[in-house]
Amino acid sequence: MRGWWREIAGLVLPVICGGCGRPRTELCATCAHALAGAPPRRVRPAPEPAGLPVVHAAAPYADAVRELLLAHKERGTLALAGPLGFALAGAVTAAARPGAGPGDGPLLLVPVPSSRSSVRARGHDPTRRIALAAAARLRRSGRPARVVPVLRQRRYVADQAGLGARGRLANLSGALEVVPGGARLLTAGRVVLVDDLMTTGASLAEAARALGAVRRPFIPGIPHGSPAGSAQRGIEQRVAAVIASSPASFEINRNSSETWIVAGGER
Ligand SMILES: [Zn+2]
To answer: Euclidean distance between the first and final Cα of the chain, in Å?
Structure first.
């Protein structure tokens, strides 16, 4: 019931920029630049949760970018899905660039699922909507891509807002699973986990764990357990893309001589 209301309201309410409130546009040039004007960057939260994929983000989560994400997610400004999808597509491209990890074929965007209660409360699934816009954008630019929503919540998860890094990890641990039959869909290309926002990284780490926990379907001609086989199956890749991440997570050159210890031995 909420969908039709928003479509009609959009026709009669005065249109303002979701980032700064400037009139007569859903997104002004200044806010568009803040969202997607800079090349996407590798981001790392501190502390970094075990099993976190290699994450690329389009923009720091602050000011106009924060307002744009909230306008889309909480206030249902659905026209922003296009620009947000554009920004996410850039981060996906950075995450899946040649040499950034194993795998080939079409890009398979796997959204981190929202809880059913929040989808109900908001009247839409913002991450999935943005992922669909990102995949469409990638296809228009000549890169085969589709959304493969194979993750779901397997138990109740409390609202993450107000929880610290430790609390979020505990809240989410074991919370996600791959839907029946989903594993096979993940073999068709290069998997990129996608979300609108990374805060502590707990959601993406749990999503990566759930993808890794899935039983690998047998594919003729690819030896089980071989690195090449894993890459071709597209299951064991650990790359993710988000629109926004905390400004601090962008400061990855904290100490160039530092040895990063990441579970799974990646990088
Ligand atoms: Zn603006």
So the answer is: 47
Strand pairing of 145-147 and 176-178? unpaired
The distance from CA 164 to its chain's CA centroid, rounded to whole angstroms, is 20
**Does residue 190 contact residue 108 with C-beta atoms inside 8 Å?**
yes
Write down the pTM of the prediction: 0.81
Using the mean position of ligand 1's atoms as its centre, give its distance from the Cα of residue 7 in Å. Answer: 21
Residue among 102, 100, 116, 191 at smallest CA distance from 154: 116
> Helix, strand or coil for residue 176?
strand
Amino acid present at 260 = W
What is the Cα–Cα distance from 219 to 184, expressed in whole angstroms? 9
Sorted by sequence, the CB contacts under 8 Å of residue 93 that are 6+ apart come out as: 40, 138, 143
Look up residue 206 and give its two tokens: 């749990």
What are 201-260's pLDDT values in tens digits? 999 999 999 998 875 555 444 444 444 444 444 445 589 999 999 999 998 654 433 334
Helical H runs in the chain? 2-12, 29-36, 63-73, 81-95, 116-122, 126-140, 165-172, 182-185, 202-212, 227-233
In the numeric block, which tokens belong to residue 76?
């249902």
Cα 63 to ligand 1 centroid, rounded to whole Å = 10
**From ligand 1's centre to the CA of 92, what distance in Å?**
24
Cβ atoms 192, 104 nearer than 8 A: no
**What's the 154 CA to ligand 1 centre distance in angstroms?**
38
**For the purposes of burial, counting CB atoms within 10 Å of the CB of 227, is it exposed (0-12), middle (13-18) or buried (19 or more)?**
exposed
